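Dear colleague,

Thank you for sharing your sequence with our group. We've completed the structure prediction you requested, and as agreed, I am returning the results in plain text so they can be pasted directly into your records. Please verify that the sequence below matches your submission; if there's any discrepancy, let me know and we will rerun it promptly.
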Amino acid sequence: MRYYPINLDIQNRNCLVVGGGGVGTRKVITLLNCGANVTVVSPELSEQLRKLEGSAGLILQHRTYQFGDLEGMFLVIGATDDETLNRQISRDAEQRNMLCNIADRPAICNFILPSIVQRDDLVITISTSGRSPALAKKLRKALEARFGEEYGVLLRLMGAVRKKLLSQSHAPEAHKPIFERLINSDLTALIKEGKTAEINSLLFDILGEGYRFEELID
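Please find the predicted structure tokens below.
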């Protein structure tokens, strides 16, 4: 199986998670963090989900799954330990031409979820196309060690610099050498070490006046 890599915009979209255990809880939190409206259907809910009850964008239904739960949903995630129920969810979603993921069951999904390393808006995904979750986990841990929180700050800084340059009517093609100089400099290490004065000096050397670290990432 060859999967088509994609990043979905689920902001304000309705998503269903069937299953309220540990796996389901992790799926719910990721969906909420991406701005989705999430409905959870499960006769049993984890303590963490119960604590989230009443949160914006979250609806908890303390009952078993019904076919009608798919009405109006953009995607569904099945996260139960009932194989028969998981297959029923998959069949129901297929009937409605919906995006469907069944946790740890790639054969009955039409999309799978990669392992993720996230640093603010920087998202690094690892997929083994469902062949080896253990390898994906190993690679994720290696990438987590390699790419620390400073990379999230770096991305915010790059985004702010880009926005400011565009506001000054700079030609987009002129940006490439500027960003190459920034990225190939010691900027990431300086951010990691918290050396604000040195960061501002570097920004001045490359960009000139008006680019101060504290103001750009505020």
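Summary note from our side: The mean pLDDT is 95.

Kind regards,
the structure core
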